[in-house]
Design brief:
By secondary structure, this protein is α/β, with parallel strands linked by helices. 35% of the residues lie in helices and 17% in strands.
Length: 525
């Protein structure tokens, strides 16, 4: 006989609370009622933070944002049937990013599966490759929630509600949790090499990487220059030039995480004699990843002093690129993102959307500190980006997001359930999929219909239709004024930039200008 639904839900929620988990994201439903009622009661007792999101797909991405921002588990709860399937995009992102999200799904009893019962499907394994723990009884959650995403599918039998009004939270206390000591490998390195930090940092903290980089004392290339002020500006731009890349080639490269943004960086890495990867996820994600050495923790290193001329060569390349860009950058997507990333306030969070914005920031932004930077780089999809930013905003006093127009429209339903947190969303509007204009398929027959996909919508009118404050900007000065105004609450800024074709042509000119300046700067001309 299955356990009483209320008892099972309360036991599960209480154990999650005892493990120190406090963020619960729920979507309305019937089969998950025992869980949502238990979470509500815990929230009323001051033990849980309850977030209600109407749409399960958006709820899962919201949970992803909360987990990214907090570093702790966020629990997202839904009813049975298609509701669970809507979790899959966020589940895949969580899996490949190794983010602590618990997908807690309600189900009918196992005896009703394959019988034609309403809202009943095979939920065990539905979020693969995340393993499902399918049960009609309480589970030992401390053995399941050991890091990374998890899926618990609880079978609730009728009756779903109970008259039991006992105080099931009496005697609540947090559990002591043991932490494992990390083991570190000792490695010998050449005097001159390059450290490359992927945008996701392999889940490692900025502080840990900066400490490692200081000891290493090699030039640093960061896909996220907004977290590493000592990184080299614009490396993805000047390394696109084959001659410059050859002059800067090194025997050893250490990569932290994955490099997913620039062909130029990956070409530079591939030409090194020895490639060392540091990524804890290689134990269970991307386990076939190849390199000369793959480590799951930052190593202890033994090395010779870095030659001054090696560091100086890279610094000259970066400074030469940095000096030429303002002289050759009219109003564009790139100049807009340079302005936003330079001017937003310290101690803020920034979420960067996939596709073109994250690449432009890698290439054109000036390295700085003071920001907590996030992006969905597990699978780099454009889905759920607004909802993810909403979740991140719940953890910060002020948050910004930068997304492209198609990314924004893809998740426009998130605005049905807006947040009250201080979040400014900059929507770069070039009327379509701008990144495709910079890829090999640019100019193929039928390009606009199958790649460019112009939306031809007035985004400001659409946004205002949701009751969200919105302004348009068409110049760098207007953009600076909006950033300085620091309005509270949720609002959007539509950044209207030249067409996708114009931008692609301008990008080619910028790359050529940077290459010429850097060749002169490091005496290759």
């Amino acid at each position: 006989m299955s356990m009483n639904a209320t008892t099972l839900a309360r036991a599960t929620v209480r154990e999650l609370l005892e493990l120190g988990i406090c963020d619960f994201i729920i979507s309305p439903g019937s089969r998950n009622a025992p869980l949502t009622i238990a979470v509500y009661e815990a929230a009323q007792a001051g033990l849980a933070d309850l977030h209600t999101r109407l749409d399960e797909r958006g709820a899962a991405f919201y949970a992803l944002g909360v987990a990214k921002a907090s570093g702790q588990y966020a629990v997202v709860i839904c009813t049975s049937g298609t509701a669970v399937a809507n979790y899959h995009p966020a589940a895949l992102e969580a899996f490949h990013s190794d983010i602590n999200v618990l997908f807690l799904t309600a189900d009918r009893p196992a005896r009703l599966r394959n019988t034609g019962a309403n809202q009943t499907t095979l939920q065990d394994g539905i979020l693969a490759p995340i393993e499902t723990f399918d049960s009609a009884a309480p589970l030992e959650l401390s053995e399941i929630l050991t890091g990374g995403p998890a899926h618990i599918n609880l079978q609730f039998d009728e009756p779903l509600l109970s008259n039991d009004e006992s105080n099931w939270l009496d005697g609540f206390a947090l559990r002591d949790q043991e932490r494992e000591e990390e083991s570190r490998t000792n490695i010998d390195l050449a005097p001159a090499g390059v450290l490359v930090v992927g945008h996701d940092r392999a889940g490692l903290s900025v502080e840990a990487i900066e400490e490692f980089a200081d000891i290493l004392d090699w030039p640093v290339i960061a896909e996220d220059p907004l977290s590493f002020p000592s990184s080299l500006a614009h490396a993805s731009l000047f390394l696109a030039d084959e001659v410059i890349r050859g002059a800067l080639q090194t025997k050893e490269v250490i990569i932290i995480g994955r490099t997913t943004l620039s062909r130029s960086i990956n070409s530079f890495i591939s030409e090194a004699d020895r490639i060392i990867v540091v990524d804890p996820r290689t134990e269970y994600v991307d386990i076939d990843r190849s390199a000369d050495l793959v480590l799951t923790h930052l190593p202890h290193i033994t090395k010779h002093s870095t030659p001054i001329e090696w560091s100086t060569l890279w610094e000259k390349a970066a400074l030469s690129a940095h000096a030429i860009l303002p002289k050759n950058a009219p109003w564009s997507e790139q100049s807009a993102l340079r302005k936003i990333t330079a001017d937003i306030l310290d101690e803020s969070a920034l979420f960067i959307g996939s596709s073109r914005p994250i690449r432009d920031i890698e290439g054109f932004a000036t390295p700085r500190s003071g920001l907590s930077v996030f992006a969905n780089r597990g699978l780099a999809g454009i889905d759920g980006n607004i909802a993810t930013a909403f979740g991140i905003a719940s953890r910060f006093e002020r948050t910004y997001a930068i997304v492209g127009d198609l990314t924004f429209l893809h998740d426009i339903s998130a605005l049905v359930n807006p947040v009250t947190d201080n979040l400014t969303i900059f929507v770069v509007d070039n009327n379509g999929g701008g990144i495709f204009s910079t890829l090999p398929q640019a100019g193929v027959k039928g390009f606009d219909e199958i790649f460019g996909t112009p939306h031809d919508h007035d985004l400001a009118k659409i946004i205002s239709g949701f009751g969200v404050p919105v302004v348009r900007v068409k110049s760098e000065s207007d953009l600076g004024h909006i950033i300085a105004s620091q309005e509270d609450g949720l609002h959007c800024v539509v950044v209207e930039v030249p067409s996708r074709g114009e931008n692609a042509a301008e990008l080619k000119k910028l790359y050529q200008s940077v290459a010429s300046a850097v060749r002169i700067g490091i005496n290759l001309a």
